[in-house]
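To: structure subgroup
Subject: Chain for Friday's discussion

All,

I'm putting the inputs and outputs inline so they're searchable in the archive.
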Amino acid sequence: MLSALGFEARGVDVSPDCIAQVHLNYPHVKAEVDSAYEDLSAKYGRFPLVLSLDVIEHCFDPGAFARTFRNLIEPGGIGFLSTPFHGYWKNLAMAVTGTMQEYYMSQVLGGHIKFFSEETFRHLLEGAGFKSIVLSRMGRIRPLAKSLVAIVKC
């Protein structure tokens, strides 16, 4: 969508299959197979806007991911990260309704391995060096929100 509006769009994913899909469906988007644990800013530069949508919960080292993400944002730039929300009331509701078993199923390949509340997400982002962090819950009613969104500035 951003590239259709005239912005340069770049993508990075660890999965060659995902990058192949980008090349097939969005040939104008520059997309590379790479790891968020590498110094991506040295390879691709820095950007005024960096997006990461529901990726960090799949990372074994979300702190390293957050630091890489921060390094991709140029001074004065903005980052936008999202992750599924997991707060006390939502986790309790999932446990009571029996949906937690399916959600945390270990046999799902590429499933979620990290879970964030507002407190844990903020702590992670502060540890990565972000000074300006705005968090918001999205989707459903607030205690049972679907997603947690962070807008960060460097």
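Points worth raising on Friday:
Helices lie at 16-25, 40-44, 62-71, 88-97, 100-103, 118-127.
The CA atoms of residues 20 and 31 lie 9 Å apart.

D.
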